[in-house]
Amino acid sequence: EKAKETRKTLAAQRVEQLREQMRIMRWFAMASPKTAAQQAARMGKELAAAVRDYTDPGQGFGLPGQFDRNTLDITPEDDGAAIRQKLRAQLEILKQAKADQPKDKEFVVDTLALRASIAGLVDIAKSGARKDPSLRRDIGKAQEALQEVAGLLGQAPRSSIGVLNILT
């Protein structure tokens, strides 16, 4: 549990660092579509990595209703005490998930805002790609990373995070 919390904290810090970098990058992007393309590709990859780290496949976001099937495997051989123990374990998981929910929502909102900013860099780079076709590779990498971010965030149940519908 502590490792999960540390992983989430580090991922959130990486998103914040990328947001700071984006604030600076906005000044340079208009002057240089090449820089915009390169930085969009780099930042997109870093954002995707942060989201992957935060979501940790198999763990997901801290959402009520998210059950851990391993703790709920009740077999016919289980007696009443074993069943109660498994249900208590599941209840603890749900309590922790509910406690994590506000942080998870904040992470998603911050990530979506940064994703939109990186998409803006891609648009700037596209304007320069007409004159310099070599930018297309970095533009493609950035777009792939942004799609990955959308896919990772799209795996979170929509009922808990109302902002996910803007991804479609």
Can you put this structure into words, describing what you see?
With 168 residues, the chain is mainly α. The chain has one domain. 72% of the residues lie in helices and 0% in strands. It is built from 4 helices and no strands.
H/E element sequence: HHHH
Regions with little confidence, pLDDT below 50 for 5+ residues = 62-69, 157-168
State the helical fraction. Answer: over 70%
For the record, the count of structural domains works out to 1
- Give the strand tally: 0
Number of helices: 4
Structural class: mainly alpha
Compute the CA-based radius of gyration: 20 Å
Characteristic terms for this protein:
168 residues, mainly alpha, elongated, single chain, disordered C terminus
What's the quick description here?
With about 170 residues, the chain is mainly α. The protein has four helices and no strands.
List the helices and strands and how they pair.
Layout: H1 2-29, H2 33-55, H3 80-129, H4 135-154
Helix pairs in contact: 1-2, 1-3, 2-3, 2-4, 3-4
